[in-house]
């Protein structure tokens, strides 16, 4: 299996929680990188329903199962809603909310790697493909 390449996104200091970046790889993949509560996650920017740019959708939370008339909002900032028809995905795993074992989007490993910038070391967010 070929070794994975690290694609630099931007310095971690410029990528705060709640933000996203969308990149294009040399081989034509579009990937969305999200900072969720201080950790980085990367998803293929392609909705498995009908091909929308999934990673441009709203980042939100969800209601967890509860009793009749009860609404418990959970996981704020961890759920991505497709901009075309509203399918929702867990940013942390790529799995859909409605059918997590059958419908999912590809995920990629992320890391913060040290780069030298003059005399300083900079923590750079990377995605491995
Ligand atoms: S294309 Fe994403 S929900 Fe339809």
UniProtKB/TrEMBL annotation:
All residue ranges annotated as the Rieske domain in the record: 7-119
Signal peptide: none
Keywords: 2Fe-2S, Iron, Iron-sulfur, Metal-binding
Matching Pfam families: Rieske
Presence of the UniProt keyword Coiled coil in the record: no
PANTHER family: 3-PHENYLPROPIONATE_CINNAMIC ACID DIOXYGENASE FERREDOXIN SUBUNIT, FERREDOXIN-RELATED
Protein name: Rieske (2Fe-2S) protein
Lineage of the organism: Bacteria, Pseudomonadati, Verrucomicrobiota, Verrucomicrobiia, Verrucomicrobiales
